[in-house]
Amino acid sequence: MIFTVAIDGPAAAGKGTISRAVAEAFGFAHLDTGALYRAVGVKGGDPVQAAQGLTPEDLARDDLRTLEAGQAASRVAVIPEVRAALLAFQRRFARRPGGAVLDGRDIGTVICPEAEVKLFVTASADVRARRRWLELGGAAASRSLADVLAEVQERDARDMGRADAPLRAAEGAQVIDTSALSSAEAIAEAVALVRQTLGR
Ligand code: CDP
């Protein structure tokens, strides 16, 4: 069976949590495409060469989830040659037999516009910043909530404003606003939407 769930949305909206849970619920493979851009961003050197030569070790680094890696990712993500180098792998993954969930910024618009289910997961900037700040340790984190909010807003602006594959909801995407939802509620909504399409 070929079945793709494309999940896009801004930083810290809950895409990762929802994607992993949907993949687990249906036995689909999951690809966090942000990790590809983070790995290119932190590798240093020429980003186009880094994207062309990305290795499993690059993707296994333990510093990919830092705020710095997020910023580095969104800076290399504006380079069309970087995006082009990562395209074929993501497309193949999306259409692999057995079902796939991919989360990122351009999955429903560029990587797999033919995806059977397209979700756009979002939340207010304040809610997203608070979640990311708590993930980083909350009061024990090295950054203030205000710093994290500024970082999230800067990255969103860069992701939405770039010329190549800007962040936006794909045509036909169903929007899940997680601002007032618990993660269990957001997961339940996404799983129900996928189940609806699978059952057709
Ligand atoms: O987890 P979070 O939402 O904070 O970020 P991420 O999904 O790991 O993505 C990090 C950065 O990579 C984003 O801010 C984008 O600039 C870039 N990205 C992209 O351009 N296209 C994708 N499909 C995925 C990520």
Ligands and ions found: cytidine-5'-diphosphate
**Residues in helices, as a percent range:** 40-55%
User: What is the string of helix and strand elements?
Assistant: EHEHHHHHEHEHHEH
- Main-sheet strand order equals 2-3-1-4-5
The computed structural class is alpha/beta
List how many beta strands DSSP finds.
5
Q: Helical element count? A: 10
Summarize the structure.
The chain is α/β, with parallel strands linked by helices and 200 residues long. The chain has helices at residues 15-26, 33-43, 47-52, 56-59, 67-76, 80-94, 107-111, 125-135, 145-161, 183-198, and strands spanning 4-8, 29-32, 100-104, 117-122, 174-177. It is globular and about 45 Å long.
Q: Which helices and strands appear, and what pairs or packs with what?
A:
Blueprint: E1 4-8, H1 15-26, E2 29-32, H2 33-43, H3 47-52, H4 56-59, H5 67-76, H6 80-94, E3 100-104, H7 107-111, E4 117-122, H8 125-135, H9 145-161, E5 174-177, H10 183-198
Parallel strand pairs: 1-3, 1-4, 2-3, 4-5
Bound molecules: cytidine-5'-diphosphate (CDP).
Structure commentary:
The chain is an alpha/beta fold and 200 residues long. It is 54% helix and 12% strand. The protein has 10 helices and 5 strands. It has a 5-stranded parallel beta sheet with strand order 2-3-1-4-5, sandwiched between helices. The longest helix has 17 residues. The chain is globular and about 45 Å long. It binds cytidine-5'-diphosphate (CDP). The site of cytidine-5'-diphosphate has 17 residues, from helix 1, helix 2, helix 5 and helix 9.
Give structural attributes.
single chain, 200 residues, alpha/beta, five-stranded parallel β-sheet, 10 helices, 12% strand, globular, binds cytidine-5'-diphosphate
